[in-house]
Amino acid sequence: MTFKFDKLYRLGAWGAAACMVAICALIALQVTFRLVDALLVLVGLSRLGLSITGVSEIASYLLVGATFLGLAYTFVHHAHIRVTLLITRLPSAIRVWFEVFGLIIALVISLLLSYGLVGLARESLQYNDVSSGFVSIPLWIPQLVLATSVALLCLALAEALYMALRIAIRDPSSFREATAPDDSEGY
């Protein structure tokens, strides 16, 4: 399958990667500060006391961003876990309709989740909700990242559903297993 919005899904994957790099940088910086303090104490000097306030809280929000921003990309590149033990034994003409049914269920659940997350972010923005940790982070920021990520997944699911329906209606016997990589991807 060729996805029209693949560049958008790749942008989400780059956002996920940026979150992971930011987590690594924050943790490395925090460890470096502690090592400098330990070395200073070791040589008989006083600590500098450098630290990043709320690093674990910030890292946890970045981890959620890294996880969710990659959803659409991993879906379109067939990296999500799928249990196909039973449907692989079915003929292609029947298997494509199972694929359509599964995509409809996934899209409905994702749309409901996206709608709820947008409402949650809107409510947090309206009431100026902030996190309760050391750093007061406005909660609408991570919630907006979640809503955007799930909306990207909804777009990818809708695109896959459209393609599966086209195959199911036009030529169901030509349906290829969704977990098989495209030949054009060079696997």
In short:
With 187 residues, the chain is mainly alpha-helical. Helix content is 66%, strand content 0%.
Note down, in words, how this protein is organized:
By secondary structure, the protein is an all-alpha fold. The chain has five helices and no strands. Keywords: Cell inner membrane, Cell membrane, Membrane, Transmembrane, Transmembrane helix, Transport. Part of the tripartite ATP-independent periplasmic (TRAP) transport system.
Secondary-structure blueprint of this entry?
Blueprint: H1 6-42, H2 55-69, H3 71-76, H4 92-126, H5 140-170
Helix pairs in contact: 1-2, 2-5, 4-5
Pfam families: DctQ (PF04290)
Keywords: Cell inner membrane, Cell membrane, Membrane, Transmembrane, Transmembrane helix, Transport
Subcellular location: Cell inner membrane
- By oligomeric state, this entry counts as single chain
- Please give the largest β-sheet: none
User: Could you tell me how far the N terminus lies from the C terminus, measured between alpha carbons in angstroms?
Assistant: 14 Å
What's the helical proportion of residues? 55-70%
